[in-house]
Each structure stands twice: as C-alpha cells, then as structure tokens.
UniProtKB/TrEMBL annotation:
Name of the protein in its database record: Thymidylate kinase
Keyword Oxidoreductase applies: no
Classification via InterPro entries: P-loop_NTPase, Thymidylate_kin-like_dom
Organism: Neglectibacter timonensis
Pfam families found in the cross-reference section: Thymidylate_kin
Domain Thymidylate kinase-like stretches: 6-197
Length: 219
C-alpha cells in the first residue's frame, strides 16, 4: 500500500507535476488513483470554499488556524470514506495532489513560531490518529520561491487579481508559508525538490526527473 503526496505553494507547478507523475506511475503499475485536495467537486468542501472565498474573513489570519484545518480535514475524511479507502486498502497506489501536509504549511503559517511544534503534533494526531486518515509513505515538496510562483499565478489568471482566493492574493501570508513549509519539511522528513535556479523556473521535464529519482527509493 502506498500513498505518495505532492506538495507545493500556490503556483509551484504542482498540478502539472502531479499529472506527469500520475502518467509515469500508471505506465509502471497499471492502476493508480490520483486524488486532489481540496475536493472541490464534493459537497464536503463547502466550508473550505466559504473560507477561501473570504466568507469568514478576507485575510487568512482572521480565521483560526485550527478551525480552518478542521474544514480541510473533514473534506479529506469524506473523500477517504466515500472515494478511495477501498482502493487504498486494496493496494492500489494513491497519488495525492495536496493532503494533510497542506495544513502543515498554510495553517501553520498563521501561528507564532512558539506554537509550530505543538501544531504539527496536533495536526498529525487529529487527522491520522483520530480521523483515521492514512499517513503518507512519501511527501515530495516542490520548492518554488514565492516570487517565481507569483509570476506563474499571474499567467494562470491572466492578470485578473479578483480570481485569486484569500491565500493566493496575500503575498505576505504566502511568504510566511514558504518558511513554515521549510520547517515542516525538515521536521517531517519531506523530500524537497528544487524547482528554480537564479529566480527562473526549471523546465517541467527536469523537475519531473527529480521527482522520479526521489521516488526510486520507495518503488
Ligand atoms: C488541501 C489543503 C489546502 N490548503 C490551502 C492551499 C491553497 O492555498 C488553498 C486551495 O488549494 P488549491 O490552490 O490547491 O486549490 O487551500 C490548506 O490550507 N489546507 C489543506 O489541507
């Protein structure tokens, strides 16, 4: 049974890398499940959508880190129970585009440094031990600097700032998240994939090859 997680800040090219990795794993194993969080297509993501839309506050920091973490966790619980538990338990490899690990970047980013250790313990206990979600076997973190990812995001929305969610539109918050990502990666032994050189994004094929070589250990 394996659960591989691909993580990265908004605009890090994660969606593209998830698709390339999915194709590579499928070619090797046949049946592979790709899951994506938040699970926007499911009603279980309702509170996440309200949060990202700014219904609880226009700035991410206005929404309690633990409350927002619970919105995402419940969405994952529903997805696991309804959609991929049987496959996971049946040994089908699962590739997750974001997972519990996203809370450990974005929600952790709202808390003072002195609370980071406690939050990581709480998040793991809540989602894995209490809710029963599976622990990842491997987490790959795409390390794309915020300045570079912002330029990529602008391309995605064709310069239309209004389309960004409350995380994407808050540059200071994303910068904090880059720091918490480094902290979580180190504490939880995530594999960090460098995605830029001198402020320029690396070719997607080059990043894909780094992803594959990190995976070799597990496969
Ligand atoms: C899955 C997940 C996403 N997020 C954040 C990351 C993104 O800024 C935002 C929406 O994700 P997306 O940009 O991949 O659609 O939600 C969390 O804070 N916790 C989570 O558990």
């Amino acid at each position: 049974m394996s659960l591989i997680v691909l993580e990265g800040l908004d605009g890090s090219g994660k969606g593209t890398q998830a698709q390339l990795l999915y194709e590579a794993l499928s070619a090797r194993y046949g049946r592979v499940r790709k899951i994506t969080f938040p699970d926007y297509g499911s009603p279980s993501s309702a509170l996440v959508k309200m949060y990202l839309n700014g219904d609880f506050g226009k700035n991410p920091e206005e929404v309690n880190a633990y409350a927002a973490s619970a919105f995402y966790a419940v969405d994952r619980y529903a997805s696991f129970q309804i959609d991929w538990k049987a496959d996971y338990e049946g040994g089908v490899p699962i590739l997750a585009d974001r997972y519990t690990t996203s809370n450990m970047i974005y929600q952790l980013g709202k808390l003072p440094r002195t609370e980071w250790e406690n939050y990581l313990s709480w998040a793991q206990d809540f989602e894995y031990d209490k809710l029963g979600l599976p622990r990842p076997d491997l987490v790959l973190f795409l390390d794309m600097p915020v300045e570079v990812s912002q330029a990529l995001l602008l391309g995605r929305y064709h310069g239309d700032e209004e389309k960004k969610d409350i995380h994407e539109s808050d540059l200071a918050f994303l910068r904090d998240c880059a720091q918490t990502a480094r902290f979580a990666a180190q504490r939880l032994h995530w594999h960090v994939i460098p995605c830029s050189e001198n402020g320029v994004p690396l070719e997607r094929e080059k990043i894909h090859q780094s992803v594959l070589s990190e995976l070799e250990e597990l496969l």
